[in-house]
Amino acid sequence: MEENPIDRVPINMSSPDLTSREREAVASVLDTRWLSMGPQEKSFEAAVKEYIGSRHAIAVNSGTAGLHLCIRAAGIRDGDWALTTPFSFVASANVLLYERAAPIFVDVDKKTGNIDPALVAEAAADLKAGGSSAQKWLPRRGVSKTGQLRAILTVDVFGQPADYDQISEIAAENELDLIEDSCEALGSSYKGRLAGKFGRASAFAFYPNKQITTGEGGIVITEDDDWSATIRSLRNQGRAPGDTWLTHTRLGYNYRLNELSAALGVVQMSRLDAMIEKREQIAAWYSEELGSIPGVELPWVSADTTRMSWFVYVVRFEPSIDRNRIADALKEQGIPSRPYFLPIHLQPYMVERFGYQDGDFPVTEDLGRRGLALPFSSVMSQDEVQRVAEAIRNALARV
Ligand SMILES: *Cc1c(COP(=O)(O)O)cnc(C)c1O
User: Fold this and answer.
1) Would 53 be classed as within a structural domain?
2) How far apart are CA 130 and CA 288, in angstroms?
3) Residue range 94-122, pLDDT digits in tens
4) Domain final residue pick, 237, 270, 303
5) How far is the CA of 366 from the centre of ligand 1 (A)?
6) Closest Cα to atom 5, ligand 1: which residue?
7) Does the pLDDT value for residue 1 go beyond 90?
8) Share of the chain above pLDDT 90, in %
């Protein structure tokens, strides 16, 4: 009798990669008095700093918190504009909204899904000029029409760095701060340089589906001494060096990373390269299995991406295939998957506030309609990859 696929061991959408070393590291924190603001936080920051080769690394309790502090450090505020991408996880746009600044979206490259440098250049010139030339880049409502363009916020989508030669030049020419959301790209490199090194500040994230995890967590990278000091103060309730526990120099937050999480992060960092290699292997298995299936487009890796630290494995179906029906057919076979990304500008609160409509960012919307993230983690087996591929072939035959 044939085995019912649903009865097999379930395949997870993602999974952390944990060993006895992580377990011991976390347990040993419980034997100390330091559950926050202790030696593990320092060790974790040192490990990331060394890996990235950055001057500063400031641990925080989520990637979103890290990005928010980059925006605060840049002094971006009410009425300011920042160029960014609608093809991302919502956090990259939300951190601007937290400061009442406006994300000004430009569309993305259809191969990589990363922000399109030609559009960034055009928009930056028009927005800097202001007046009527600026208007075509602004949403229909909800933003100051006389704002000031302050920054470019790039996202290294699915682990692939944006096109930094061009974007850094545009930022420099227009005197804009470049902030890099590298939350999906720990360990990736662009023309031999690691993601996280391109922004004046950048953030990594350590939610359980990322390349490494601290449960929840993030870290900010910067070369800038002033920004580093500001970010350290902001994550710790606005205390500045010399402040007592109840003195607060500025309006801050509790964005600190606890010691249990930091201890987990120290061990995960020591295993990062090995885990990236496993992710590479799994992506290669997927590409081998799926490469010859008509109607399925494999993820595109640019020649400029000298190392791809795979965050997710996202395929695209050709336009005549209904991606949602494929996802349903996979689910019936016990295989999870996720539409990825749903464009930010079409999220309900964005539509309500800014009046965005279908058609505003056609490339983003096309990728959003056709992309499907498949189960992916560094603990997947070849057998599991084959089961997913088989389920995709079955789904395509049915729909
Ligand atoms: C994961 C992620 C973040 C931050 O996520 P947190 O859950 O806050 O750690 C930000 N931007 C992108 C693109 C992400 O993928």
Assistant:
1) yes
2) 50
3) 999 999 999 999 999 999 999 999 999 99
4) 270
5) 22
6) 63
7) no
8) 96
Q: Is the CB of 179 under 6 A from ligand 1?
A: no
Best mutation site among 64, 156, 220, 347 for ligand 1 pocket (most ligand atoms within 8 Å of CB): 64
pTM: 0.97
Residue 212 counted as domain residue: yes
Q: What are the DSSP calls for 297-349, one per residue? A: EPPP--TTEEE---S-EEEEE-TTS-HHHHHHHHHHTT---EE-PPPGGGSHH
Alpha carbon distance 241, 355 (integer Å)? 44
Q: What spacing in Å lies between the alpha carbon of 332 and ligand 1's midpoint?
A: 29
How many domains in the chain? 2
The residue type found at 205 is A
CA pair distance 380, 282, nearest whole angstrom: 7
Report the atom number in ligand 1 closest to the C-alpha of 157.
13
239 and 338 in a single domain? The answer is: no
Ligand 1 pocket member 92 (CB < 6 A): yes
User: Which atom of ligand 1 is nearest to 65's Cα?
Assistant: 8
Last residue of a domain, one of 222, 251, 270: 270
Q: CB of 310 closer than 6 A to ligand 1?
A: no
Range of the domain at 316: 272-398
Taking the centre of ligand 1 as the mean of its atom positions, its distance from the CA of residue 205, in whole angstroms, is 6
Mean pLDDT over 286-302 rounds to 97
Instruction: Tell me: do 130 and 279 sit in the same domain.
Output: no
Residue 105 near residue 116 (C-beta atoms within 8 A) = no
* Statement to judge: residues 170 and 204 lie in one domain: yes
